[in-house]
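Late entry, evening session. Most of the bench is empty. Finally got around to the prediction I had been postponing all week. Sequence below, unchanged from the version circulated by S.P.
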Amino acid sequence: MKLGKVEWQRTFFKTYFEKRSTAHLLVNFNRIWILHIALFYFYTAFNSPKVYAPHNKLLPSAPMTWSATALGGAVSTGIMILATLAEFSYIPTTWNNASHLTTRLIFLLVILALTAGPTFYIALVDGRTASTNSQIPLIIGIVQFFVSVVATLAFGIIPSGRMFGDRVAGKSRKYMASQTFTASYPSLPRSARAASIVMWLLIFGCKFTESYFFLTSSFSSPIAVMARTKVQGCNDKIFGNSLCTNQVPFALTIMYVMDLILFFLDTYLWYIIWVVIFSIGRSFSLGLSIWTPWKDIYTRLPKRVYAKLLATAEMEVKYKPKVC
């Protein structure tokens, strides 16, 4: 009888628009992109020194190597910024919603300045006589690298909605309705959660180790040869020599993209391997044999249902199996 007196606009407020678009690939899967693209950049930048070396030198300086590799943190921060901007289109622009995203966006811009800004300074002072005797560029490059690693790991592990505290899971009565109706997730038992964490640590640990040695480290020799190679003495009737002279850089770019695709596929490979191992362990822990054919399991199912549910000792009337 009192429902007509409830002030619904104050009880609930809309937090999301129900629409689907390709921007969901950024909003929902930003951690997948970070753990692959940013880590691939870290690996590849370290193994591609000739790409960013000065033209009069074969290899870059130590500060420039640290700083160029550290730009992987700027890559992960850029992905987070794009995901945050895309998320603005999915929420009503009220203060309750926009304040949280605006705070996150400002924080991400500060992180972007910390992970990308030092590279411009090191590029300006790199090679000067005063800077060659100074350790300041090297210290800045090392600090930038470790800030980038910490930022990438944080962005890859922590869900973006929980970076500044989980509003829904908090104790504030303001979000109690949303917590009850829209964010009521069952929590995993401690053993299942520990098994999930261990499985994903093994998957990504094996993936990152194997990908470094067999994808990016082995790719360093072709990069060293192709980074500065130009085709000479070629000409075309329509394009002149603008395309054919850059044939090697074009081929190197395609190889980079293909290496990134293989970097993604490696995750799936190790996922399949460790899921099989965990499934076998789970089967034995439950007392099931992995060699039992699925056909036998399904054909025995009616008999098991009869024995466990329909013909128990507590029942007064016993039904025959054929009737059941």
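Two things to note before I forget:
The chain is about 65% helix and 0% strand.
The mean pLDDT is 83.
Will write this up properly tomorrow.
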